[in-house]
Specification:
The protein is mostly helical and 302 residues long. It has 14 helices and no strands. Helix 12 runs antiparallel to helix 14.
């Protein structure tokens, strides 16, 4: 008897992750007054990275990943550095430019960087025409926060490359964000951290670490099993959409008519990518099922 799976597909996992990410900048504003953007970002990644690292240790997945060779270890190191730099730059950008503008600018440029990087690292995930239309429409006019955006693209492409080449998804994100946590430890000694001992500070840090880092990146890595990274980062545009809505409704920020029109374009782009992403995920699952069936048939014949 065949049971149908109720596990979310790749597109759904990535959209859920992006929705959680979209709450990070707003959550940061609820931290006590002494909590600077670098300190909050470090607390988020150190807490979430530790959880992801511990989860990756289960079943020997992390040891298996480390044994894949020097090239894999260098890729993980690059991904960790990019994740650490992204977090610091992103919270600094939203602190100066506002949650709505900072999130839209930072994440909006990521699909372009990811498309370029994917051409270099994996020609199998070459961006298609649908991606070019959706990403081009969503990122028109975005010229700021390129450092954070590029770093996001680096660690997303690194994770996708390793996962698509057989590495376990939880091991990949555990290694990347565990490494990022180590890199950000000095921030704890260079920034005032008294805010973390308050009830509100601890609540904000725990929310950011557990939900927007550990859970969100496990979902994202799961989505990368069946979703090309170019599609995944464009689906990640749900993050600035959520952030912008929260900035407008919760924080009382304002967007111009052009900004509101941009949110509308984002929504259209996400519909285009979500529809095509579901088809890609279904095709990938079907291919895996056919390969598994052939392997079972070969094994029984031998």
């Amino acid at each position: 008897m065949r049971h149908s799976s109720r596990a979310p597909g790749g597109t759904s996992c990535i959209l859920l992750a992006a929705t959680l990410w979209g709450t990070t900048a707003t959550a940061r504003t609820f931290a006590p007054a002494g909590a600077g953007p670098a300190a909050v970002g470090a607390a988020r990644i150190i807490g979430g990275g530790l959880l992801l690292f511990l989860f990756a240790l289960r079943g020997g997945a992390l040891a298996e990943l480390a044994a894949r060779g020097t090239r894999t270890r260098w890729l993980l190191a690059a991904g960790a550095a990019a994740a650490a730099a992204y977090q610091t730059a992103f919270f600094a950008a939203t602190a100066r430019a506002g949650v709505a503008v900072g999130a839209v600018v930072t994440i909006g440029a990521a699909p372009v960087f990811t498309g370029i990087l994917s051409l270099v690292t994996d020609r199998r995930s070459r961006p298609g025409a649908r991606w070019l239309v959706a990403s081009g429409a969503s990122t028109a006019g975005i010229a700021l926060a390129l450092l954070a955006s590029f770093c996001y693209a680096v660690y997303a492409t690194t994770a996708s490359h390793l996962i698509s080449n057989g590495a376990q998804d939880r091991a990949v994100v555990g290694a990347i964000f565990g490494g990022a946590a180590v890199l950000l430890v000095p921030v704890l000694f260079l920034s005032p951290m008294a805010w973390l001992t308050t009830g509100r500070g601890l609540a904000v840090a725990s929310y950011l670490a557990v939900l927007t880092t550990a859970l969100a990146y496990l979902l994202y890595a799961r989505g990368l099993r069946t979703t090309p990274v170019t599609t995944a980062t464009t689906l990640g545009l749900a993050e600035p959409a959520v952030a912008a809505v929260l900035g407008l409704t919760v924080l009382g920020e304002h967007l111009t008519g052009t900004g509101l029109a941009g949110l509308g374009v984002l929504a259209v782009s996400l519909v285009i990518l979500a529809w095509s992403g579901q088809a890609v995920s279904a095709n990938a699952s079907a291919r895996k099922a056919r390969v598994a069936a052939k392997e079972r048939a070969s094994a029984s014949e031998s």
